[in-house]
């Protein structure tokens, strides 16, 4: 569970630089304290995260996929599990025994870098914008007490209708349109190829 414990709007060093009030408005930053309270194991663990955002921006609540076994719990967070989005994973030990070792995470059988933290492990990866929609596997491999084990689930990647511009982009002298239309340059390109 997440609780927002406080919100504060601050301004950067705009006052020192004698910027106009309009410029100061664009430099202000909203700081929100987000407290994560997990009541598992009959205890309360608090993780405090400070989120710095522009003053007029409110972060959307992420979609969460949770899967676990008797050893570990995996939380996957994404704005949307869809093309072009990022996925953040947290891997925490929940059972008895030693700390997990040799932890690896695979998405579509491709290894994702995993980082050890004081509370467990984390990983971050992106979903390819050109990925076809469908269900894809996420697997976490680990060792506890010398015994290798794995935990797997599937996440459904949704389609995104990205905005597409149909107008020509004028890039001035960096365009090759003038060169490729000239017969002299076409002959030179054909000769060089």
The termini sit apart by 62 Å
Strand proportion, as a percent range, falls in: over 45%
Task: Give the helices and strands as they follow along the chain.
Answer: EHEEEEEEEEEEEHH
- Report Rg: 25 Å
* Unreliable sequence segments: 1-27, 37-43
Task: Give me the CATH fold name of the largest domain.
Answer: Immunoglobulin-like
Q: Count structural domains.
A: 2
Look at the structure and name the CATH superfamily of the largest domain: Macroglobulin (MG2) domain
Query: How can the largest sheet be summarized?
Result: 5 strands, antiparallel
- Helicity range of the residues? 10-25%
Number of helices: 3
CATH class value of the largest domain: Mainly Beta
State the strand order across the main sheet: 4-5-6-10-9
The general outline is: elongated
Question: What is the name of the CATH architecture of the largest domain?
Answer: Sandwich
Structural class: mainly beta
pLDDT averaged residue by residue: 79
């Amino acid at each position: 569970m997440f609780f927002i414990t406080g919100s504060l709007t601050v301004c950067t060093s705009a006052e020192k630089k004698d910027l106009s009030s309009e410029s100061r408005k664009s430099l202000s930053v909203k700081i929100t304290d987000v407290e994560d309270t997990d009541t598992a194991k009959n205890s309360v663990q608090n993780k405090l995260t400070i989120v710095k955002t522009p003053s007029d921006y409110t972060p959307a609540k992420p979609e969460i996929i949770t899967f676990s076994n008797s050893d570990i719990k995996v939380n996957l967070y994404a704005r949307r599990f869809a093309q072009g989005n990022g996925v953040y994973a947290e891997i925490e030990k929940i059972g008895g025994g030693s700390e997990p070792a040799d932890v690896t995470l695979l998405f579509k059988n491709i290894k994702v870098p995993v980082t050890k933290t004081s509370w467990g492990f984390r990983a971050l990866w992106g979903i390819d914008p050109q990925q076809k929609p469908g269900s894809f596997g996420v697997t976490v491999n680990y060792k506890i007490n010398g015994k290798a084990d794995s935990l797997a689930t599937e996440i459904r990647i949704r389609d995104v209708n990205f905005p597409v511009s149909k107008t020509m982009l004028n890039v001035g002298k960096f365009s090759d349109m003038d060169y490729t239309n000239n017969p002299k340059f076409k002959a030179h390109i054909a000769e060089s190829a």
